[in-house]
């Protein structure tokens, strides 16, 4: 009987892993890369911003050539580029470069190859969360956690981002696993095992070089451990030995990060982090609650008619209330059960400490990181573990077996809602990319037969990456639109010109461009940081075209972009 349960449990785990893999790799290249993913691709390919084609007119069909592997680049060289041009530690980018080098030549499927490591780490997270809850609580808690993680819309969303979110989430899960094992050893054996605390220290040391937010996770682990030691001090016999081991391991983690400490202090004040705004009143609280909800359910509310958005928003809210009611009932049993109390205290303390750190950063430092759902990956493993454990604990109560809202039915509802949310996600109906490059491209391609020039007036390299994301989404549309059209209409280009302090340098560059192989075209001017009134009524292009603003074609999706309709003036055509 025991062997049968063992086999069924691991069969269910394999099923959760398979389902999670399918959801994460399904339509992995459907959504266009957005700004942050473009930045990831540039550094992961061994390149830097210095390799980008600025101040030149570049044919759209050549934009994918930018995203080719730079051979012979070492991790030290990548780290040097990261130090000068990014605000992230280098380890993830070094690993990405090795992965892409192994897969080269990248070919037309390069977007899938750039995003696939995040998907693989997302699948590995399912296994890690299983073992976390199995050790912290019991096997069925691990199984439910794996199923929950497999179909969580936020987890699947992070797994389809060419960014370093699923890797640090995996490393944090392993670190929490080590923390739980240390706590278990203190509780049961009144000592800590050297290999466990050293492994915990090594994992945390590595995590610092994966993502800076892992520092927040490490501080929260220390605080959770200190609270537990103080709370249980009367029951701990070998206090000196335990404290010595913990202090040594914390010192190892701190010393390991000293070489990179000046870099992170410099990165804090860089302009790339200035986009995070100060919190508005209690906004961090309800933004956090929204992020919790997105871990469970995500329905189409983006770019929907107001009536549909309200209906779906209300359904999500009611679902969140129902799940909260279920969790509160199970959590009470989890907290008071002697066998699960210590683990529950540890995971809860960790989660609360991270949230307090988030609020401190928002209110004290003026950078509201709670407004970005993806940043909540820091405590997501402990959040998932606790929710799963509450449902698993409820399954032990025989008196609810006849209830319509018992474990099987209630968790099945959450599981099915998660699958449905993920299907919407992989179909690009929810969790749409920031700045909506696909929508921008469609707006710009409204006249496929007319030649097109997209000009990005950039302030910094992030604006260049944003413009590249628009160009990548626009290129396949123009390629399709130009089929069957004569070569005189195949003019589809992009250019990046520095704007400082206003549009004047961009306008000057446009007037000085060489003669263009077109008598008329659509000029789209993208102006990050500009207002509508900053766009001039007319623009001179190549000293031969007059471009007139189309007042009906002004858009703003994060950044403003404006259409100008250009044609060769009569005077210039006679001179020609």
Query: What summary fits the major beta sheet?
Result: 7 strands, mixed
Report the C-alpha radius of gyration, rounded.
27 Å
Query: Helices and strands, in N-to-C order?
Result: HHEHHHHHHHHHHHHHHHHEHEHEEEEH
Give the overall pLDDT as a whole number: 88
What portion of the residues fall into strands of 2 or more residues? 5-15%
Supply the helix-strand structural class.
alpha/beta
Q: Estimate percent helicity.
A: 55-70%
What is the terminal separation in angstroms?
91 Å
The best one-word shape is elongated
Major β-sheet strand ordering: 1-3-2-4-7-6-5
Counted by DSSP, the helix tally is 21
Give the uncertain stretches in residue-range form.
398-406, 482-489, 570-576
> Quick one: how many beta strands?
7
Question: Any overview of this molecule?
Answer:
By secondary structure, the protein is of the alpha/beta class. It has 21 helices and seven strands. Helix 19 (461-481) links the parallel strand 2 and strand 3. The longest helix is centred in the middle third of the chain and has 31 residues, at 306-336. The radius of gyration is 27 Å and the shape is elongated.
Features:
576 residues; 7-stranded mixed β-sheet; 21 helices; disordered C terminus; elongated; alpha/beta
Give me the secondary-structure topology:
Blueprint lengths: L1 H24 L9 H10 L12 E3 L15 H11 L5 H13 L6 H27 L2 H13 L1 H7 L6 H24 L4 H15 L4 H19 L7 H19 L3 H8 L14 H12 L11 H31 L4 H25 L14 H15 L12 H20 L10 H8 L7 E7 L2 H21 L10 E7 L5 H8 L8 E7 L11 E4 L3 E13 L1 E10 L1 H6 L1
Parallel strand pairs: 2-3, 2-4
Antiparallel strand pairs: 1-3, 4-7, 5-6, 6-7
